[in-house]
Specification:
The protein contains 3 helices and 6 strands; from the N terminus they run E-E-E-H-H-H-E-E-E. By secondary structure, the protein is α+β, with helices and mostly antiparallel strands.
């Protein structure tokens, strides 16, 4: 298991932002009091029509079954990746063989990450008027990057 270096004393990355749900959509309140929609909410609007078409095509029961399974898989794998990046020794404990196998396929990519600047950080852009939470900010192959774990 790789041991990741976590950089400390980055006050510009340590502010917290609270969230507000407005009409079922997540919004972040910036330190200056601006209210910005989450990037996930904005991106979700782009795919809404195609997802609705798919749900109609396969039927609600099947769509719920597939969506639930995919969501659980993504959440589990995300937790494993985060524990691994945080140098937790037992990052695979209690995981199903399927999740362990999925993790092993992306582990070589995570090995290219180091010098962790932060995990689960809330960020925002006044320029774009948007906010969100990153999985990880670290160096990937030596380049400072925003890293998002995806299945």
């Amino acid at each position: 298991m790789k041991k990741f270096i976590h950089l400390a004393n980055r006050p510009e990355l340590s502010f917290g932002m609270r969230t507000e749900n407005i009409n079922g959509k997540r919004n972040y309140v910036t330190p200056s009091g601006e209210l910005y929609p989450s990037i996930t909410t904005i991106l979700g609007e782009f795919s809404k029509a195609s997802i609705q078409e798919w749900r109609k095509r396969v039927g609600e029961t099947e769509a719920n079954k597939i969506s639930g399974k995919a969501s659980r898989r993504g959440t589990s794998l995300h937790s494993v990746c985060e524990a691994y990046i945080q140098n937790e020794e037992k990052y695979l404990n209690g995981e199903t063989p399927h999740i362990v196998e999925l993790f092993k396929t992306i582990e070589p990519i995570l090995e290219r990450v180091d010098n962790i600047h932060g995990v689960e950080l809330a960020l925002y852009s006044d320029h774009f008027g948007v906010a969100g939470r990153t999985d990880c900010i670290a160096e990937f192959d030596g380049t400072l990057s925003v890293i998002d774990y995806k299945t």
